[in-house]
């Protein structure tokens, strides 16, 4: 971006402006505001909203939802900004000479602001077989006799994309996190087949977590979960539709 952004740094209560051309393509766009403090953003007179770069603190060393709930369980992004991406609708942009205006309250380095394309190549999901469900709570609290609702794992690619393959799938006790999943000591051999059948070729899908859905109980009397990593790719001749249960 060119303009006065690079000339004003580390000074609170300042106005900044810059002009930029719209990137080619149709991918979603976002402003990376990690280098700034607190303020507001406008593009071509339209308000993007307020930003406030705060950093998350805590312990991200491990994650387990078993046992009593505590707010410190399963923390993510320790030491990282709580938010740094701010969506920019393409419908607000002109091919050239788009005006970006900032009002900064705390200071920062506006020369490091960037406009980036968001391209999702993989999506992950993980859920346990006894994940809390508001419908089940209502059934139990009202003394109803209907069957409890099983939790579902949901995968969703960006508009214009569809799930092209399943990189990882394991119903049992998988290990690791998104991007580094591994099979644990308990694993249902049908996991890949079930996810591929329900999800490949679709923009979004949902798969119910149940022993019957995966053929059998791979490890009785053990709390199981389903971890999935899928690849998203541009749609070709496949029409994406919501997945089944």
UniProtKB/TrEMBL annotation:
Keywords of the record: Glycosidase, Hydrolase, Signal
InterPro entries on file: BetaGal_gal-bd, Galactose-bd-like_sf, Glycoside_Hdrlase_35, Lectin_gal-bd_dom, Lectin_gal-bd_sf
Keyword presence, Zinc: no
Pfam families named among the record's database cross-references: BetaGal_gal-bd (PF21467), SUEL_Lectin (PF02140)
Enzyme Commission identifier(s): 3.2.1.23
UniProt catalytic activity: Hydrolysis of terminal non-reducing beta-D-galactose residues in beta-D-galactosides
Top-rank lineage group of the source organism: Eukaryota
Domain SUEL-type lectin: 147-233
GO BP: carbohydrate metabolic process
Enzyme class: hydrolase
Record GO terms (molecular function): beta-galactosidase activity; carbohydrate binding
Family statement: Belongs to the glycosyl hydrolase 35 family.
Protein name: beta-galactosidase
Organism: Gossypium harknessii
